[in-house]
Every structure is written in structure tokens, then in C-alpha cells.
Amino acid sequence: MATSFNDQFDQHGVWRREFALRLKLLAEWLKDNELLDAAVEERLRRLESQVRSDKIMVAFVAEFSRGKSEMINAVFFAGYGRRIMPATAGRTTMCPTELGYDAEVPPCLRLLPIETRRQPQSLMEWRMAPEKWVRIDLDVKNPQQLASAFEKVAETIQVSQDDAQALGFWHNQTPEDNPLPDAQGRIEVPRWRHALINIAHPLLKQGLVILDTPGLNAIGAEPELTVSLIPQAHAVVFILGADTGVTKSDLSIWREHLAAQPEDTCSRLVVLNKIDTLWDALSTPEQIQVQIERQKASTAEILGLLAQQVIAVSAQKGLVAKVTKDSDLLQRSCLPVLEDALGRGMVGRRQQILGAAMASGIGDLRIETGRVINIRKRDLTEQFQELAGLKGKNATVIKHMRTRISIEQAEFDQGGAKIHAVRSVHLKLLRDMFAILGSSALKKEMAQLTDALMQKGLKLGVKRSYGDTFDRLRTNLQSVQSLANEIQSMLAATFSQLNTEYGFSLQPPSEPALGRYLQELDGVERSHLQYLGIGNAFKLAQLEFSERLVRALSTRLRGIHESVLSDIELWSKSAASHLDAQLRERRRSFVRRIEAIDRIQQAAEGLDDRMAEIQLQEESLNHLDVKLNELTAYLMTAQDLARDGDTALPVR
Ligand SMILES: Nc1nc2c(ncn2[C@@H]2O[C@H](COP(=O)(O)OP(=O)(O)O)[C@@H](O)[C@H]2O)c(=O)[nH]1
Ligand SMILES: [Mg+2]
After folding, report:
1. Could you tell me if 480 and 587 lie in one domain?
2. Which residue out of 316, 317, 334, 338 has the highest number of ligand 1 atoms within 8 Å of its CB and is therefore the one to mutate?
3. 275 CA to middle of ligand 1, Å?
4. Which of 97, 123, 401, 622 has the largest CB neighbor count within 10 A?
């Protein structure tokens, strides 16, 4: 029996909240036990914000009128008891529309005017400029007001042919794809470039982001959709109509925007919608089923898929069935099959990925914290042996011992200079890495690419220019990796030297592995080349278009570079913290040892009492170790938490 998408998503939300809570408890426990140093704190903070703010994006991509908006209504918003996204004949989404929830912003619809296409800023950059968007506040308790506000995404304006060209809706090179002008020669274009809907719907509150896209024309005109938004979605639902079959423009969308997406990073669902158009009162249910199967098979064949990869549904009947609570009709609409596939493919996979990221973060944390506990244990053992050696000795020997510890302490304090020198080399290498991946270097790289694309006659070399740029970006990443390796071996050498010299137990943290960022770069390159390869290259002749494309690319690359640098920062912080912890513990240990001897000298405490106390401290450290393992082991296997069900918190 298929669970509804909403239920699966709810469970995922419960798991995430529960996990975040446990991370908080772990942080408190570490703090109480003086185990929360700067690096561990930073690591926990990152994990918590990752698990709390994790977004899951599902994109609906298809030619217009295939039923994207209707499907969004049926899967996510049937609870409102009516259509929320406009999805009736003639009133269809004209601009890409993102539905999500941001607690900082009141419920509203924000619309970016289409004229912003004349400027080079990427969509990402426009997002940072809220004053450029038209905002309409939403009354979430009033589905009527919601629905009528959302009608805005269907608005169009009439513009001259020149304007349509500048806005990316008219191309002289491919007249067959151009929209039909009206009697005055004017072209109908969307009024808005992008819409953001912010509502506190339970699913959206838990981090679901839904992207509804208009048809091929609008997708093609907004490169950021193809090179950023769609490839970064966790699931893409591609919709075909049983009433139209696979048309030429369906196939263009599939080939230009979807076929090359690697399956392992995102789940891709192909849906044959409107099967109710095949429900014919004169045919038997079996005959209808045969019809549907036949159409699924031919659709699959055209797209190069297996028949079972195509899900046949009726979004419209599914919505009606949910609103009227007609369970027979809901089964016939097959909507639950789609929801189940979405839930398992997307939510399930997301949970696995997030769980694995958490497990590896917690694993590192356990190792780092475990080392601090070990340092303390070793110090105690040594102190115990030192005191045991004093048994039965006279006052002179004890005094001599005190002097020896003081000398050792003074020597240790002087050793600081060497550690300082290592730190400054470390910092220099870090600065080099930040320079390679910093924003001014990227700006230069992008300016070079823009120049190359602008050169007349070079249009055929577009692939080359992109290829060269990506080669350089990869080389940069590799240089950063070698700098990291250099720091790592330097740390290893210094740490082992310090270990011999001072009896430390320092170990460098595991170095950042940048391989997955290289893969990400490859993915970005693929989506660009794929996009430019198929019939879109001519668009580069348009200055605005190339500029927009490069700006979109640059935003995406900045994101990747920032993630790399953030990994490196955490790694370097861990190394520094580990060294700091060792130094701090050692200084404390000197103070404790001298103090103990002083008390014994003053006969304020017996030797045996002091030794017994150390043993107690050792026991409590052992206990701490066990507890740490317990707490972290729980977090490392907590992926299964949500599925147990008994921990479920009420969601609605
Ligand atoms: N018969 C039928 N019509 C549907 C179905 N889904 C959507 N439609 C209709 O198809 C048209 C386009 O739907 P819409 O959701 O706006 O398509 P979009 O442009 O892809 O968002 C509307 O008139 C819908 O009522 C369906 O499952 N069956
Ligand atoms: Mg629509």
C-alpha cells in the first residue's frame, strides 16, 4: 500500500527536527564536560543548520498545458479544497514559479518584472534585491484570495518584435519556433520573469521547494533554469499528455534540459498525464488499460526509457478525488503511484544523503573529542606514576621533584615560538588557497570567458572557450588540493615532532577531499555544453544572452568555491583547535602537578588521598568516553529514527 507523499515528507521532517534537537543536547553535554572547543562547536553548528534548513526541491518541467500546475495542486495542495495554482484552459503559468517557505518573510507572492532580462544580473542576484520585486501579501486563510493572487503568474503583456527579441522570446534564426504576432504585429510575452510564493504550508515549512516551470520557450530563454535550478533539483518530474502524445517540443525539452541529467544525483520521473482522456464509456476497463499500456510503451520508446519508467496518471481526476474524498476515483487516477515514487525516490534518497553527511560529521567529531579525553587520561596516568614514585621518600626528594616540574614548565612555555612559526606557514598557505578560489579570481576568469564569447566569428569556438575555462577551473581546484596536501604533511611532521618532544598525542585531522567538487564542476560543464550544443548556440550571438549565461555560471561557480573554502576552513580550524587543546591541557597539568606537591609538602593532604582522587578522575574520564560513544553512536544510526514511528511529533 502506497503511503502518500505528504506522510513520507512529514516523517522526514520529524526525523530532521529530532536530529537537530539531539545535536543540541550533545553540544550541551560537551560543554558541561569542557569538551566543546571552537572546532567542535563549529562542526556541530554546521551540522545542525544543515539538518534544520535542508531544502528538497522538486521541479516540474514540461511543455505548457501538460498539467504541471494541476499536478502540483493535486499532489501538494488538495488540502485547500480547491485549485491553488492556476490550471484551467487559457490561464496557465507563464513564468517559472517557486513555492517555498521562508519564516523571515510574511506570506506573499513576489514577482520579478520581465524587463529585468535587459540587465545582466543573474536570478540569484535579483533574489538579493527584494525591492526590485513586486510584492503581493497573501491571506493564507482564504483560498479564494490565494488563488486569485496566484493568477498573476499567468499575466502577459504585448510588446513589439524588437522588445520580444531583447527579452529572449523571438529569434530570427529559428522563425518556426517564434510566437505568432497579433494583428498589430505585437508579441505576447510573460509579464513576469520569475515568481516566488512564500506560504506556511506544512510541506513547504518542512523545506520542500516546488518549482513550476512554463513551457519550452520560457525555459529556453532563462539559462539559469537549465544550468542551475533544474540540475540542482532533487527530483524532476517531466510530464507528457496522453491527449497529445510525445510532440516535437516535448522531445526538445527532454533532450535539451533533462536527458543528460545524471540519474544518481537526482531522481527523474516521467509522467504520462491526462489518462482520463482515454477513459471511454464504450470500452471495458481492460480495453482502456491496454490503451494506456500501449501509450506508456510508445512514450518510453521515444524517450529511450523502459515502459515501467513511465507513470500514467490523471492529475485532474486525482485532485477532484481528493477534494471530494472519492477513494475509487483516486485509485483510478493512479496519483498515489506517482506520490509513492516521489516519496521513495526523492525523500528517501535525500534522507540517506543527509544521514550519511551527518554520520560522517559526527564520526569526525567523536574522533576529535575522543582525542581530548585521551590527552586528559594520559596526563592523569603520568601524574599518578609521578606521585607513586614519591611514596616513602623524604622532604628533600619531594622538593627536588617540585623544582624539576617548574623547570619543565618554563621550558614548555618557551617552546611556544616554534608552534607559532608553524602556524604562520599554515596561515600563508591558507591565504594562497583563498586567493585561488576567491571572488576576484573568479571575476577575472568570467570576464575572460565573456570576452571570448563576444568576439565575432568565434561562435563556433564556444565549446572551446567553455572547455578552456572549465579546464582552468579544474586546475585551480587541483592546486588547492595540492596546497592542502602540503599543509597536511607539514602538520603531520610538526605534530609528530611535538609528540616526541613533549609526549603529545597530536594527530592532524583528515584532510578535505575535494574530489566531489571536481565532479560538481564536471556536472556544471555538462549542463552548459548540453544546453549550448542543441540548437541554442545561435542565441549566443545576442549580447544580453551571453552575458546572462556567464552571470548565471558565475553564481553557480561561486557557490561551489564557497563550499570548498568552507570545508578547508573547518579542517584548518580542527587542526588548530587540536593543538590548542593539547597545549591547554598540558599547561593545566603542570599547574595541577605543582599544586599536588605543594599540598603534600604542607601535609595538607596525604599522598594516598591524592592518588585515590586521581583514580576517581580517571574513572570519570572513562565514563565520559563511554557516554560520548553512546551519544554519538545514536546520532550515527539515527537515520532509522523516523521510521520507528513512535517518536513522531504531531505535525498538523
Ligand atoms: N483531462 C485532463 N485535463 C487535465 C489534466 N491535468 C491538467 N489538465 C488540463 O490541462 C490544461 C493545462 O493544465 P495546466 O496544469 O495549466 O498545465 P501546465 O501548463 O503544464 O501547468 C488545463 O486545462 C487543465 O485543466 C488531466 O489529468 N486530465
Ligand atoms: Mg502551469
Report:
1. yes
2. 316
3. 11
4. 97
User: Would you state the pLDDT for residue 596?
Assistant: 85
**649 band by pLDDT with thresholds 50, 70 and 90:** very low
Closest ligand to C-alpha of residue 318 is: 1
- Do 380 and 429 lie in one domain? The reply is no
Q: For residue 277, which atom of ligand 1 is closest to its CA?
A: 1
Q: Tell me if 124 is assigned to some domain.
A: no
Sign of the CA dihedral running 365, 379, 586, 593: positive
Q: Strand, helix or coil at 635? A: helix
Q: What is the pLDDT of residues 21-57, one digit of tens each?
A: 999 999 999 999 989 888 889 999 999 998 988 888 9
Q: Are the CB atoms for 487 and 568 separated by under 8 Å?
A: no
Any idea which residue has 556544471 for its cell? Answer: 524
Measured CA distances, 362 to 48, 300, 365, 514 (Å): 11, 43, 5, 19
Could you tell me if 361 and 497 lie in one domain?
no
pLDDT in tens, 95-147: 899 999 998 889 999 999 999 988 888 888 898 898 999 999 998 888 888 88
Does one domain contain both 384 and 399? Answer: no
Residue 225 in any domain: the answer is no
If asked whether residues 375 and 509 sit together in one domain, one would say no
Whether 471 is in a domain gets the answer yes
For residues 49 and 24, state if they share a domain. Answer: yes
Q: Name the residue at shortest CA distance from atom 28 of ligand 1.
A: 274
Cα separations in angstroms, 482 against 421, 439, 448, 562, 575: 21, 20, 25, 18, 17
* Interval between CA 68 and ligand 1 midpoint (Å): 7
Distance 143 CA to ligand 1 centre (A): 20
Nearest residue (by CA) to ligand 1, atom 16, is 87
Q: 158: buried, middle or exposed (CB in 10 Å: 19+, 13-18, 0-12)?
A: middle
Ligand 1: nearest atom to the Cα of 70:
15
User: Which of the pair, 263 or 631, is modelled with greater confidence?
Assistant: 631
The predicted pLDDT at position 12 comes to 87
Report the number of distinct structural domains present in the chain: 2
Range of the domain at 626: 14-54+352-389+607-639
Q: Residue 67 C-alpha to ligand 1 middle, in angstroms?
A: 4
**Could you tell me if 185 and 161 are in contact, meaning their C-beta atoms sit under 8 angstroms apart?**
yes
Q: 273 CA to middle of ligand 1, Å? A: 8
